[in-house]
Specification:
The complex is a heterodimer of chains A (115) and B (117).
Chain A lengths: L3 E4 L2 E4 L5 E7 L4 E2 L4 E2 L1 E6 L6 E5 L3 E2 L7 E6 L2 E6 L8 E7 L8 E2 L3 E5 L1
Parallel strand pairs in A: 2-13
Antiparallel strand pairs in A: 1-3, 3-10, 4-5, 6-7, 6-11, 7-8, 9-10, 11-12, 11-13
Chain B lengths: L2 E4 L3 E3 L5 E8 L8 E6 L6 E6 L6 E3 L7 E6 L4 E6 L8 E8 L4 E4 L3 E5 L2
Parallel strand pairs in B: 2-11
Antiparallel strand pairs in B: 1-3, 3-8, 4-5, 4-9, 5-6, 7-8, 9-10, 9-11
The chains are: A mainly beta (115), B mainly beta (117).
């Protein structure tokens, strides 16, 4: 199974500042045939289900503010919040969906708070 | 409105079974597969299994193979997840999630299952 590891486990950022979350997979999630990275990012606020933010490593889901961006390829990925807002306080998870079975493994999550 | 509506919280004794429903609305039910993901307190999201809502094919994570059953009722646009032989470690929030292109674009609100004597 592909193991996803996020860093840091938590971070505190001032309002308006940049937040950067890293995600590393134990093997490449770049599929050669379509040149796509099978990597998604989710946001989970307390008491709510996860919400899809980014798929194919860098494609923003409809309705997601453009301060959220994803980058990276192969085994190393980054989620960036360019200007942190109060409503961005949440836990963020990366997920690989390269494997069809098991169908997606998640990182341990990164908690983002306001400094 | 496109949504997945799950059944409510459950409290179960160790050794019992729990069955959670996930009703889809606002889109053709058989167009998307549905997955079940759980989240134990303080733990990461854990994928459990999925059902192809069209073909009714299912796949389960090996650790749940003996006690997990996922079914679907196309007439009711509803998927079900039944977990048997419950133990305290199964205390978690159980989510259903829609598969768009193997990532999960729509989630139910979750059903808390508490296993306690």
């Amino acid at each position: 199974d592909i193991v996803m590891t996020q860093s840091p486990d938590s971070l505190a950022v001032s309002l308006g500042e940049r937040a950067t979350i890293n995600c590393k997979s134990s093997q490449s999630v770049l599929y050669g045939r379509d040149n796509k990275n099978y990597l998604a990012w989710y946001q989970q606020k307390p008491g709510q289900p996860p919400k899809l933010l980014i798929y194919w490593a860098s494609t923003r889901e409809s309705g997601v503010p453009d301060r959220f961006s994803g980058s990276g390829s192969g085994t190393d990925f980054t989620l960036t919040i360019s200007s942190l807002q109060a409503e961005d306080v949440a836990v963020y998870y990366c997920q690989q969906y390269y494997n069809t079975f098991p169908a997606g493994t998640f990182g341990q999550g990164t908690k983002v708070e306001i400094k | 409105q496109v949504q997945l509506v799950q059944s409510g919280a459950e409290v179960k004794m160790p050794g019992a079974s729990v069955k959670i429903s996930c009703k889809a609305s606002g889109y053709p039910f058989t167009t998307y597969s549905l997955h079940w993901v759980r989240q134990a307190p303080g733990q990461r999201l854990e994928w459990m299994g999925w059902v192809n809502t069209d073909s009714n094919n299912v796949k389960y994570l090996q650790k749940f193979q003996d006690r997990l059953t996922i079914t679907r009722d196309t007439s009711a646009s509803t998927a079900y997840m039944e977990l048997s032989s419950l133990r305290s470690e199964d205390t978690a929030v159980y989510y259903c999630a829609r598969d768009r292109e193997r990532y999960f674009d729509l989630w139910g609100r979750g059903a808390l299952v508490t296993v306690s004597s």
